[in-house]
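Retro notes (design track)

What went well: tokenization of the new backbones is finally stable.
What didn't: we kept losing track of which sequence belonged to which structure.
Fix going forward: every design gets posted as structure first, then sequence, in one message. First example under the new rule, 41 residues:
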């Protein structure tokens, strides 16, 4: 029972960290694109 609980927790943390990393890369890309547009003006 404890093993299943720990597996669920670690799996949830893994999924969340993956989602956060994807969001961060997306935000960085968007801000870089916005910065380029701003510099081109």
């Amino acid at each position: 029972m404890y093993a299943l609980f720990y597996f669920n927790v670690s799996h949830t943390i893994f999924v969340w960290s993956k989602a956060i990393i994807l969001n961060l890369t997306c935000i960085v890309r968007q801000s870089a694109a916005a910065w380029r547009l701003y510099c081109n003006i």
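Added context from the reviewer: The first helix runs from residue 2 to 40.
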